[in-house]
Structures are given as structure tokens and as C-alpha cells.
Queue: 2 jobs
Job 1
Amino acid sequence: MSNADTLRQLHQDHLNNYNQQEQQAIELMGLLNKLYNEQDVQVTLFGDTLDTTSVGRILALHQKVALRDKGAKSIDVADTLAMVKALADHKNIQAARIDVGQLIANDSDLQAALKSTKNDNAVSNGATDVVLYGFGRIGRILTRLLLSQASSAKGLQLKAIVVRPAAAGDLAKRASLLERDSIHGSFAGGVVVDDENNGLIINGRFVQVIYAKDPSEIDYTAYGINDALVIDNTGIWKDEAGLGKHLQSTGVKKVLLTAPAGGEIKNVVYGVNNDTVGDDTIVSAASCTTNAITPTLKVLNDEYGIENGHVETIHSFTNDQNLIDNYHKADRRGRSAVLNMVITSTGAAKAVGKALPELSGKLTGNAIRVPTPNVSLAILNLNLKTAPASADALNEFMRKVSNSSQWQTQIAYTDSTEAVSTDFVGDTHVGIVDAQATILTDNHAIVYIWYDNEVGYSTQVLRLATQMAGISYAQIPA
């Protein structure tokens, strides 16, 4: 056989293999949708949700898994399909999050894993009405995340968006901003303006748009909304007096703020101190930076102990800054965000102490706003009580943490020598440790953490919202 014939055959073999994987992915998508709709079962692959709308994304995720941990067992789409088929045969499984990647990689016995969760006694989740108060960057990302997944009658149900009174044509502009995003690209779905009912039909689901100047003036029950969880994305109110206005309106049960809060309101980083949330009616999801760094700080403190340290945030510019030089009440933020690096303050280091009391008073922090629109970088400059053997040992510890069942949805890990900020646009992990940048001198460690300050943070907000709504899932494997 000639070299040309060999190459043609190689090409055909690869094509046949890919076509087979495509067919397996199509079958997998059908099963995933059925499990989600009928049994409220969500399937993940090492913490990443398996997309139920895109064959290409399912295949890309399996390739990503194979590349991120070269020493791990390779998992093909066929492996995942076989496991999901077995799951689909268990009609009694309800309200569960099942990580097929962990089950396959660890050669876990499915029957034993299901039995150990005592899932037969799980309470089926109901539906919780959700209202987004504000429709800026975070509001629109939350909308995308909530309505990109398959429809279900359970869980968080986006029922309304509240914005300030506006001129004619506002609905069309809101719809366009949701559909088209300069950073995250086009929305994966359809958005239709319903002028007659003053709402948006997003992926077949009607979302009421309410115009109001003050939270307390709204009667949500007039729109068929009851016992709602309001997610306040405006950042206008940050204390109990202001956020309490939401609770004065009719139809609201709880409030979640997507910014650091003051006073006695709990600042919560999901995965770290969300166990402190009980019957609280007002809770803060802290800031994007606090969420990005606190999980990594926790695992480092648990393993090595942290004496003290400094957090420097290289943060993408935000709408709070001016595009060109103009008056601004805050220092330096009046200078052009797209032309300057701007030194500014951040409360993230101090806020870590609220979520992780053992680090209270041990960290200082500053921020530098830079001319990029999204994805930020936190630099942890830490003095450790116990020194790792080497930078490689520290990286190996973080790699194992990122692959653990406990942290895989929040902490990610990259050891690429070519990684740059745009590689992490849309990454749902709250923080990604860059192993190539790790520095260790004696007990002095410097750890770099990338984070999509929009999407990564929004996934944390939704995890906390799910908990506040009383929605729970059996974790398989435990």
C-alpha cells in the first residue's frame, strides 16, 4: 500500500470513528433529557454538566477530560453512554446529581453507589419561582445559565425580570442584549419579544418583564408568582434596610444579593461556608473575586496552614469605570478603563475572613483593573506554616484537589504553557489554578488563579440559590 493510500485509510478510519461517536452522543442526549425531565436527575462528567443540546460539546468535553489528567483513565463517549443507559433502567432514582466520570474512572459498582446514597427515600424537589432584579451583566448570564438547560417542572424557575421604567422599544433592546454578547457570543436558543404581555419567550418559556423604581412597590402575585427567591443583581442595596424592601413586596420569600453585603447579612461562598445558611431570608453571594480565591485558600490552609498573605487581583474593567476620562466619585476610576491599568481597592481579602474565619485578619488585598472585558487573575502571595516539598508537590496537591468529587465543580487546574485569559471565557469553574505560574521559596508560595468573573461567579450564585430554595440532590458517588 502506497503512502497516499495509507493516509487515505487513516483519514477514513478517523472519520468512521468520529461518526460513530456522534451517533453515540445523539443517543446519550436523548437519555440525559429524559432523566432530567422525568426523574430530576442531572448527569455530570467530572463536575462538568453534559450538554443536552450539542453533539459537538459532548464530544469536546470528553476530549477535554482526556487531556486534563494524562495519568487518569481515558473515558470515551461509549463509556458514558453505557453508564447512562444503566442509570436509565433505575426508574426509582429521583432528585440526584450523578457524576459518571467519577464512577467510570474509579471502576465503581453502580448498584453499590446507588444503594449507599439511600436515594429511594429522597424527597422529590418542587419548583421555586425566581425573579431577577436587574438585567445587567450578571443578570443576563444567570438567565442564560437558567434557560440553556432542558426545560423541567422542578427546580429554579425563572418567572420574571425587573428593570427600571424605560421608553418604548425597551423589550426589544433587552432581548437583543440577551441574544448577542460581545464576550460570550450568541445565546444558544431563541428569544422572542412578547409585546402584548410585556415579556420575553426564552427557549419556549415565558418570562415576565416588570418595570419598577422600588422593590417594595411590586405585587408579584399579580403575575402568578408566589414565594419567590429574588436575586438582586443591581448592587444598589447592600444592607438589611435596602434589601428588606424586596421582602415588603407581595410574593417574595427570600433575597439573594450578587455583591458583598454589609451589616449582619451573611456573605457566603458556596462550598466553603454555605452550611451557615439556615432560615436566613437575606443572603449575599459575596463577590466574584472572593468566590474565586476562597475555595483554593481553604484547601491550602487545610493542608499546609496559612500564616498570612497578600492577594493581588488583576481584574477586567467593569461598567463602574469610565470608557474615557470623565468625572467619577471614586479615586482613579474616572480615568479611561480601556486605555489604563487602574489601581483600586478590593474588599475580597477581607471578605475571605467572613467565609473562612480562620483566615480573618491574615490577608491584605489590592486590585488592578486592566483593559480586558472579562476573565481576571488573582495572585495569592502566601506564607505557609508547613512548606510543601517543592512547587511540583504543591501543584500535584492542587491537581488532585481539582479532580476530587468535593472540589471538581469549583476548582480547576491547568498546566498549559500557552494558557491566556481568553481561554477561560465561559469557564464555569469558580477558579482555575495555573500550575505553570506557581512559585515556591521555602514556605513562601505564590499561586495564580484565573477566573471568569461573570460565568464562574454566576454558577456559584445559582448553587447558593438552589440551596436557599430548599432544593437538594443526592450526590452519586457520595
Job 2
Amino acid sequence: MHYPWWYVPNFTAPMLIAGIATIHVFVSLYAVGGGIVLAGEVSHAYKSNDRPMLDYLRTHTLFFILLTVVFGAITGVGIWWTIGLASPLATESLIHIFVFGWAMEYVFFVIEIVSAFVFHYYWGRLDPKTHAAIGWIYAISAYISLVLITGITAFQLDIGNWTPEKGMWTAFFNPQTIPQIMARSGAALLLASLYIYLHAAFKLRNDVHLRSLVENRVSKWGMAGAALVTAGGAWWYVNIPESAKSALAGASALNILTALIFLASAVVFFMLYFGPYRHPGWLNPGFAILYFLLGIAATGTGEFIREGARKPYIVYNYVTGNNVLVSEIPKLQASGYLNGGVWTRAYLKEQYPQAVTKDGNIDYAEMLKLPVAEQVKVGKVLFQYHCNDCHSTNGFSGLDRLTQGWTRDMISTVVTHLNKAHYFMPPWCGNDAEAVLITEFIQSLSEPTPAGMKFSEEESSEKEKTSNLAAREESDR
């Protein structure tokens, strides 16, 4: 059974999820990497009795908590809210498959929150050894959360040899888990160093000695992060499924972005090495902002590529993008996609009672007897449930422009062979009658061939002549 659809006009629901998730990733990775860097640097400052460094780290901890705990929590809830509306079946599946994993993650999340506040608000009230231990408790808890969530989201890209009969750990240790943990660990350390640079460049503007010390020490964390991002990203690419590699190879933009992420990581590594590490004193607001933007670009690009490679399945080979289990597709193709949903049957029974049988099933022969205008309306319902999660009628990924200039036969052929026409799309999950209905709707959206396209205009004119001739011959008969 498919779920009620959630319509986001022009922008589409997946893009809204991507926007919120990307903002959250920028903060959540800092929550992990920043915790490790703060714990490490606080421990070192206590051992060396570096009071100025400890004073700076205390001010940075407040900035860290406000951004990661407050803003990070809001965007984290936003992700759950949007995926629950846009991809309810995938969300349900991930909860059921990884119920114990989520339980562990929530426990460690609570430990994170408590230890973060204790670390900050009891600064100076705890002995150095206990205070440093609290910092490490936060860092370890945050990192375990990253490991758990990364394994679960990696499962969406490649389920490996998992089947519903196998347990959670088989699903968790899929081919993508370790490479993505490595890449995200690197991104966490890299972003943490860049956040600290950004903060220190403004906070320590008048303290050249302390600013140089901060940039020199933090540069080691950043270089380690850049190296892990590069190694993890390469390992990720080697291990992705063949369909994902084909999707990347077939999208020139993704190929360019893949090259850019490795280039950006290398640039940041060498800038850190030859700048703050070898020659401290470079750090200023402009330099820190440049570093920060490069890190954000590299991280955001990596997340975009990961999402682009995951099509057409919200959970690879298990849940399709239109919220249907792969195992349900043959049944829906036989009995009808609209017949597979409680909501669709109820709506059509109310609108077209003559086309719904007494037992509540849709009579498709009657549906095809409806006037064309009504068939278009039924086709719109099909679009909303079957296609709306990736496409809009107009705007981003809008069908009006994607089918511009297409004939009715072209639309019909693509509809019935979705995964053949575009291998990154799920199969058509409806029956033949529904293919006719959705074709009528898409044809009503399709824009004409742009003016000035000479060959297309001549071809269209010739087809129109042929069509008119056939109509006259039929009339004569």
C-alpha cells in the first residue's frame, strides 16, 4: 500500500529534504569533529597548564553548544518531519529494520546533551582530570552517534546481502558503511578545524600569539580530516553498486562535482600544511572565511553526490522512490497502482462511483470510458502518488519542460518503460489502463516544441498533414 502524497509546489519534497539535511550535516559534523578537537585540545592545555588556551577554548565551547545543540537539534527534527511526510515507507522501513540501532543512537544522544552542558557550565568547577573526561565522554558519544546514523543511511545506497529475514547487524555492516564512516569522520574533523578558525579569527583578532597557537594546533586535525575525506571518498566510489556508478557516469554535473570534491580536499590539505601548520600567523577573518567556504563546498558536494548516486530507490532494491516495496510491484502492475492504496480507492469512489465496484476495487474499463478531461484528472491522481516524490508539474524537475515537444506515443512509451528510458527511475508500477490515464495527464502538461526549431517544426507539420489525411480517409469510409 502506498501512502498519502505530500505536495511541495515547484520545488519538490526531496529537494526540501536535501536543503534541510545539508544544513543539518554542516552542523552535525561539526558537533562530532568539534567534540573530538575540543576534548583533545582541552586535555593538552591542562597538561601544559596553558591558561590562555583554556580561556579561549571555554569561549569557543559556548559558540559550539549554541550552534550544535540548539540549531542542530532544530534541523535534526526538521529532517524527521520532512522524511516522514515525503518518504513515509522508507522512514518506516528504516525504523523497523534498525529499531535497536535507533534506540542506541537516542541513548548516546542524551549522553551527548548532558555531557556537553556539564562540560561548559561546570568549567572551572571540576578538577582538570574530571573536566577533560567529561569532554571525552561527549566526543565518544557524538562519534558513536555518527557511526550508527552513517551505517543506517549507507544501507539506503546498498543493502548488500541483507534480506528481511536477516538481522539488523547484517543490514548495518553493508558495503557502504565503513567507507562512509571514514569519509564522514574526515569531514567532521575538517569542518571542526574550519569552524574554530572562523571563530578564532574574530575572537582573537588582537592576540597574535594565541591566534597563531590555535591555528597551528588545529591545523593537524584539519589535515587529518582532509586525508580521511579523500581516502573514504575513493573507497566509497569503488564500493558503490554498478547502477549508482552508471548514474554518476551519465550525469556530467555529478562527474564534475566528484572531481571538484577531491580537488577541494587536496587544496585545503596543502593550504593547511603550508599555511597554519608550517607558517602560523596567516589566520585572519578573510583567510578563515575562505577556508570555511571551501570546507562547506567540499562537504555539501559530497552529500549531493551521495544522494545523486542513490536513485531510484529510497532504500536500494527494497523501497522505490514512489513509496512502494519492490516486492509489491508485480502485484500492482497486475491489479493497478490506484487499487493498491486505501486513499486512492476512497477518492475515486467518491468522484467516480460508476467506476468503482461494490467491493471497492476500481473498474478500469469504466475509467477509460470517462471523457478525456476526466481521464486527465485521474491521471493527475496517478502522478501525485507515483511521480510526485521526484517530479513537479512545473518548476524543478517539472514534466512540462521534461516532455516538451513529445508526442503522445513518446510519452506513453516512456511511461510504460520508465526504468528502461531512464535507468535511475523506478519501474512503472501501474497497469496498462493507468498508463493511458497518466499519459493523458502528462500530455496536457507538455509544452510545444520551442519556436524557431526548424527541423522540429517541419517534422511536426508533416505529422500533422499525415494525421489530417488519415482523419479524412476515415471520414470518407
